[in-house]
Design brief:
The complex is a heterodimer of chains A (111) and B (113). In chain A, 0% of the residues lie in helices and 54% in strands. Chain A is mainly β and 111 residues long. Chain A is globular. Chain B is built from no helices and eleven strands. In chain B, β9 and β10 form a beta hairpin. Classes of the chains: A mainly beta (111), B mainly beta (113).
Chain lengths: 111, 113
């Protein structure tokens, strides 16, 4: 079992819709979770981080964390074609700054 | 505030050679982490440095090494290059104490022929 699992997609949503991206993890001790966006040919960009159970909102993005069920999700409201990218879920493993990444979900927002 | 910078951006090397990549973190950040990204394996952690000390290491052979200088700049070295070392090498910086948010540089694309 991989430490961080994501559906590879592509997830296709129409412009203006809500995109829902999900991630599950195996280590119950994980405390810190991150969502990165990566455009083709570019480096990952941090868009959200969440450390506590519940929801965290930032603009059009909402991160949701449920430690009991071991999943993290990212909602993108009012999706735009510019949101089309690969979204990587990551968590801190073993302390310090070792991030473990999922394989990423490719999101395609079509006009 | 300037972001993370990496040099060089592109590199072509031959099998058996060695290579050194450089990373300058965001001003005030003391932690630098290195990652390798390939289509097959995704993003994998190489190692992390904080205040010139390696605090964490991933599952890579000893050919991969790194160091950090007193100004927090970091270098990673790969010796005896293999074809499988072709990848995007990413450096990420963070404050390093009490927070885990990491910010990536643009990466160095290494091609081994």
């Amino acid at each position: 079992q991989k430490e961080v699992e994501q559906n590879s997609g592509p997830l296709s949503v129409p412009e203006g819709a809500i995109a829902s991206l999900n991630c599950t993890y195996s280590d119950r001790g994980s405390q810190s979770f991150f969502w990165y966006r990566q455009y083709s040919g570019k480096s990952p960009e941090l868009i959200m981080f969440i450390y506590s159970n519940g929801d965290k909102e930032d603009g059009r993005f909402t991160a949701q964390l449920n430690k009991a069920s071991q999943y993290v999700s990212l909602l993108i409201r009012d999706s735009q074609p510019s949101d089309s990218a690969t979204y990587l879920c990551a968590l801190v493993s073993g302390g310090y700054n070792k991030l473990i990444f999922g394989a990423g979900t490719r999101l395609a927002v079509h006009p | 505030k300037a972001g993370v910078t990496q040099t060089p951006r592109y590199l072509i090397k031959t099998r058996g050679q060695q290579v050194t990549l450089s990373c300058s973190p965001i001003s005030g950040h003391r932690s630098v982490s290195w990652y390798q990204q390939t289509p097959g394996q995704g993003l994998q952690f190489l190692f992390e440095y904080f205040s010139e000390t390696q605090r964490n290491k991933g599952n890579f052979p000893g050919r991969f090494s790194g160091r950090q200088f007193s100004n927090s700049r970091s270098e990673m070295n790969v010796s005896t290059l293999e074809l499988g070392d072709s990848a995007l090498y990413l450096c990420a910086s963070s404050v390093g104490a009490g927070t885990y948010e990491q910010y990536f540089g643009p990466g160095t694309r290494l091609t081994v022929t």
